[in-house]
Each structure stands twice: as structure tokens, then as C-alpha cells.
Protein 1
Amino acid sequence: MARIKPVEAHEAGWFVRLVYALTKRKLGRVVLPVKVTAHHPRLLRAMGEMEQGQMAARSVDAALKSLASLKAAMLIGCPF
């Protein structure tokens, strides 16, 4: 349970609703970290750009990136 109340789609502006739709398409649902970060749309945009930049990087094989991401998530107890 988050300490900060998540922003629901009906409370959000157009940009946040767009991010919610893209997140739902990619992951199947809108995850809590995105809903909490939606309180600050500029930060939400910056985090999205960082994620896209990391996905676009070609210096490491995609399979190795996936394994490293999974290992990091397991170490910190992240469910996704």
C-alpha cells in the first residue's frame, strides 16, 4: 500500500490519461508507481523518457538486459 494516494484516471489530465493508456497496453494494467508519479506529470514524463532510452540502448544484448532487470527486481523485492 502506497503512502501517497494514487491518481485515478478520472482525476488526471490528458497527458496522464495518455500515459495510463500506454502503460495499460504494455503491461495489461496501470501499475501503482505510475499512478503515484502522476502527481507530478513532468517527473512522469522524465521517467518515461528514461525508460525509453534504456530500452533503446544497443550496447548490451536485449536478453542480457532482461536478465539483469529480473535479477535487480528480485534483489529489491519488486513484483515486476
Note: The chain has one domain: 9-76.
Protein 2
Amino acid sequence: MDSALIRKMQKAKQYAQERERFTFLALEVQIEGNNSTHHVTYNRGQWTCDCGFFQSRGQCSHTMAVEYLLDGLLGA
């Protein structure tokens, strides 16, 4: 591996440890539910899911699961 690529990898690891550098603007996730597959999106602080529970309540197990998975990275 060349030295320039090694330096880029080291820089990437440094950036990844400095979470304040990142602002997630949008994210799309497909999640396999128990009964069907759902499409979850995050766009500028707003979650959406195509499941019926989200449509009626504004949050659901699918959006919460993605939030838990990301463990506070979104700043929401």
C-alpha cells in the first residue's frame, strides 16, 4: 500500500472519531420488519417511514431502531 493512501486512511479514522465534524442531512434505510420490508428516511431532522403505525403516530419501531443503530450520530 502506498504512503499517500495510508495517510488518507489515518485521516479518515481521525475524522470518524471527531463526530462534531459531521452533519447528516439525509439518510435512506430499508429495514426488514417481521411482516414486511419498510423504507425509513431521515431528511434534515425529520424521520419518515412507510408503515401504517408511523403514518398515524409520527414514529415507529423502524425509525427508533435506526436511531438506536446510529446512537446519536444524527444530532436529533
Note: Residues 23-76 form one domain.
Protein 3
Amino acid sequence: MTIGAVERVHPKMMTVVAIMAGLLPIMWSTGAGSEVIQRIAVPMIGGMIFSTLLTLTVISAIFGIVKNFSIAPWRLATPPSAHEKR
């Protein structure tokens, strides 16, 4: 059984690193208008960290619980054999 987090680590981390690489220089800038842009960059960095933790831990745990929970009781019944005739 493959857990969703295992399949999503590489694409998620590539996205987060690329976005953070773009946002960190904006946070450290001191030029004209940097105060306004820094106010936008800080929540975006926090959101990227939070979304990464949420995607890789919480959502994967919920997926694992739901996947193991049998919603369809008819799947538990054994199917009739191909040799049986009614």
C-alpha cells in the first residue's frame, strides 16, 4: 500500500523550494516600495510552510484512514464462482 505523502514529496518540495527561492529575496530587499511587497511575501511564505506540512502529514493521514475504512459492505461478500450456475 502506498501512502499519498510518499508520492507527493518530490513534486511538493520542488514547488515549495521554487516559490521560497523567489520570495526570500523579496523579504530581504530594502529598495523603494519594499515595505509593501514584504507585507505580501511574509504571509505567502507562512502559507507555503503550512500547506507543505498539511499536505504531507494531515491530508495523508486522513487519506490512509479513509482508504482502510470499508464504506461498501458488498465488497466483503465473496463473488459467485464462475462454475456455479443458477
Note: Residues 4-68 form one domain.
Protein 4
Amino acid sequence: MFSFNKYYFGLSLLLFTTEVLIVLYAHDQIIRPYAGDFLIVIFLYCLIKTFLNAPAKPVAISVLLFYYLIEASQYFNLIHHLGMDNSKIAPLILGNSFSWVDMLAYTLGTGVIFMLQSSPVVSPPIR
């Protein structure tokens, strides 16, 4: 069940670096909000698969549901209800505004995971 996968570790590093570059240098209305949300789902999937030898579908669906839960917490203004309005870290972790477009970006990212995992060319060899 637990194992280290170099393939997914490399992808995780690449995606993490991309996310950091987006945060630092993309100050636009498309790349930062949408590409970042699209890639974060793929990043977390790869990070989990780095350490957990589990079937692709349950991991991808779990990651998608996790991000849906985060988005739902924004919809219900969870930060306010927890009394963390003045926190600088809470909005970074939970976000601060609900968006259907974010939900779409998460869903599309998960769709890409499913497409890539079903491709024998892109999928890592099973050991």
C-alpha cells in the first residue's frame, strides 16, 4: 500500500514548481485563477500517488471531493464561522470566495487525470 514512486514524485515536483511560479509571476485574470486550480488537483493526485500505491480512480475522486469540500467551505464562509476572519493563513488554505468556475477547473483537472491514467503511453509502469 505505502511505497515511493519516483515517477509521481518527479511529476509532483514539476507541478509544485509550476504552481509556485504561477503564484509568484502570473498576475493576470486567466492563468493564476484558472490554471492554478486546474493544476492543483493534478498536483495533489501525483503527491498522493508518490507515497500510496492505490488505484487511480479512487485517488482522483477523493482529491476532487477534497477540493469540492474546500470550495463548499468558501460558499458557507467557514472562515468567518470559525472566527478566523483576521487569520492570514486560513484564507491561503481554505480560500476566500466560492466560484463555480473553480469547481469546473477542479473537475477538468480530474478529467485529465482519468484520460492520462487510461493511456498506456503516459501511465507509469505498474510494479
Note: Residues 6-117 form one domain.
